[in-house]
Amino acid sequence: MKLILLGPPGAGKGTHARILSEKYHAPHLATGEILRQQIREKTPLGRKAKDIIEKGGLVPDQIVNAMMFQVMGRIGTEGGFILDGFPRTLGQAEALEDFLAEEKTKPDTVLNFQTSEKVIIDRLSGRRVCPKCGANYHIRNIPPKKAGICDSCGEKLTQRKDDEPETIKHRLRMYESETKPLIDFYAKRNLLKDVPGDYDVPELQAELASFFDELKLVK
Ligand code: AMP
Question: Which domain holds residue 95?
Fold first, then answer.
């Protein structure tokens, strides 16, 4: 399975990518998660990205492309991929197209999560994360077993700095100006599939499963 997940922050990309990755045995590559890992490890890349991410901006294409192609080159594309949050600009989309052409492959489909602003704000403001292992929760939709504590490692959960209301607004503006043009980019290539991001997780998973059956994407 070779997928690109496109959509605004809070659209549900990460949640569905994690489930699909387990179900279809394809590596889940979440750009934001890889960047946050670099920040936790205080690498030179992490130091460059920290401020930009906390303010809700986009990390420059050159940095993100190099980072993603290094990861994809290392694990290879034969086993498939689920790209979550990459590409996010036209420059990234073009570079990815060239990278995949060199690998003699292309995406099976690009899922375009159509999610209303009301749902986005609710998901992002209720999101809690584990600062140690990066696990994601939501105070109502995906609560941890014990309130405020990570199920996997017992760490106290926090809110992402970029999930604060003003930063959310800025991230949505970045989506509108930088990422939305990718809808057209992939539609022109006949790769775009609109999906209802407002749906509950099981409902949308069921819809995705029948779409993948149609495409004959096997588990
Ligand atoms: P996410 O976890 O996908 O919401 O990403 C968190 C933040 O990481 C974004 O708001 C950006 O600052 C940065 N980021 C993630 N993916 C990209 C990308 N493809 N290009 C540039 N910046 C990115």
Answer: 2-215
